[in-house]
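Morning F.,

Quick status update on the modeling queue. The single chain you submitted on Monday has been processed. Sequence for confirmation:
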Amino acid sequence: MEWSKAKNIIILLLVGLNLFLLGTLGSMYRDERDSYIAAAEGAVRYLESMNISIDKSVIPLRNSFRKTMVIERDQNAETAFASALVGGSDVKNPGASYTVSGDWGSITWHPGALLDGEFTYSGLYNGGNEEVLIAYLHTAGIETAGYVCDYENNSYKVTLTRAYNRISVMNCILTFHCHNDDRVLVSGRWYVGDALPLSDKTESDPAGLIIKFVDHMQGSGIVISSIDIIENGYMLQQMTNIGVTLLPVVKITTDAGVAYIDAIDAHIVLNEIMLVCQ
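Structure tokens below.
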């Protein structure tokens, strides 16, 4: 009987502890969200003071704590990728750039995860319907979620954008141009291999990044009237003799154009606004 009472007390204590921990976690989540909301509202007020309009809902209300990732170049993985497309693994001219040939064609890999080539496989054109090509790419182990297809006279183009942790790698794009003779031209960028953290630095808070971006634009003499869209993404960058990095970026679409900023230290990675204004 005494043990039964003690057991019930222990159970009640554990239940109480779990409720306390859940309440603490809930409070921490609310506090974190409130701080992001306050930062977003502060950013909106700051931009409005500079005559820049932005809807608060555009600003992300959380930090994903993304890091810069590195992918070491793995020629075995590259050869396997190309081999699945061209039906063979005969490597020619091994070096920084090299060609993988097979029964159906060849693919050439270059530094920076760049590749190009051509292969032919019966039935891929399929009367101008990309379904057979998509199935072929799946068989080769290539992820095709969210592909875009553009139709032309006697050909079509399937464009794939790579993703890391379901976030778009915005400049990692591979195009398959299929002609009515089943010939497919391949070109673009596509990394293969595992991504590992390059450092412990994580991305900055979204509201602070936006303010730094606007200050940079103002300092460059570029007038922005509105910020319309803010998107998280990655940019692929070459590391000489190593491979590539996945740099976390924020894509900012304004009335003047688009810019990509480093999500960690807020420097401009690619400024299409500057290109338009020059």
